[in-house]
Amino acid sequence: INMAGYLFIATVVFILWVVSVLIFDQRTYMVITPGQIRVCEHVGASIRTFDTTGMSFEKQRDDLFRHWLLGFFSGDLIVRTSGAEKETIRLPNVLRIGWRLEEVQMLLSEKATVVV
After folding, report:
1. What is the pLDDT at residue 70?
2. Better-scored residue on pLDDT, 7 or 30
3. Environment class of residue 6 by beta-carbon count within 10 Å: exposed (0-12), middle (13-18) or buried (19+)?
4. 58-91: per-residue pLDDT in tens?
5. Do the Cβ atoms of 65 and 72 come closer than 8 Å?
6. SS3 call for 116
7. pTM for this predicted structure
8. Sheet holding 36-40: strands in order across?
9. Which residue in 50, 54, 97, 110 has its CB near the most CB atoms, within 10 A?
């Protein structure tokens, strides 16, 4: 195989890797608005909505290699809901977790109000 063959194979493998990491790997995500959190756990799945009253957030940075050396200030985010159906939602490897938790706490301290 000449250089064009190797370049073609490498390009195809790279495109498959990018699609895998950027689209299919990010299956669980949260949308946080004042007073409400929406969680989607799979691409194309239904979105669950939770009220933020009594909700707790926990930051875990217990893995020295994964969170400190390679992680760029990453950590695991654990969200515990309250109410009749208590759930634990775990988001592994959240980058800049301290900064993101400050943003979340600021959003959750506000409540969305509707003026009629």
Report:
1. 65
2. 7
3. exposed
4. 888 777 666 666 667 788 889 998 878 888 988 8
5. no
6. coil
7. 0.66
8. 29-33, 36-40, 47-51
9. 97
